[in-house]
Amino acid sequence: MSLMQSLLFVFLAGLTLCGLSGTLLQILTGERLGFGPPFLRRDRLAASLAMTMVAGPFMLFNDALKARRYGRMGNPELVGAAAVCVVWLLSLGVLVLELVLLLGQF
After folding, report:
1. Tally of CA atoms within 13 A in the half-sphere of 68 that contains its CB
2. At a CB cut-off of 8 Å and minimum separation 6, what does 52 contact?
3. Full-prediction pTM beyond 0.85?
4. What pLDDT does residue 37 have?
5. What's the CA gap between 61 and 69, in Å, rounded?
6. What are the residue ranges in the chain where pLDDT is below 50?
7. Which member of 20, 39, 91, 106 has the lowest number of beta carbons within 10 Å of its beta carbon?
8. CA 34, 31, 21: angle at the middle one, nearest 5?
């Protein structure tokens, strides 16, 4: 497998986990994903961190699009947020694949 194929596979693994968890969170809460309540709350810190870890790229991009719509963010900042989301998805994909490999050893 070439480097490009490996990167694409890892990216798609992260995107899949993020998409499934983000959609599930939106269905359960009825709210759009974002870095605010009901997803981030001080009284449920561990749950908030877990939600942010897996659905964070979509939360970040949703908030960036909202800020762009209201004129608080320009196009370069939106591209920067998208780049952070891509790196985050790659990291999440590596984590998912490592967990699958770890669980496959048992």
Report:
1. 15
2. 35, 39, 40, 59
3. yes
4. 87
5. 12
6. none
7. 106
8. 70
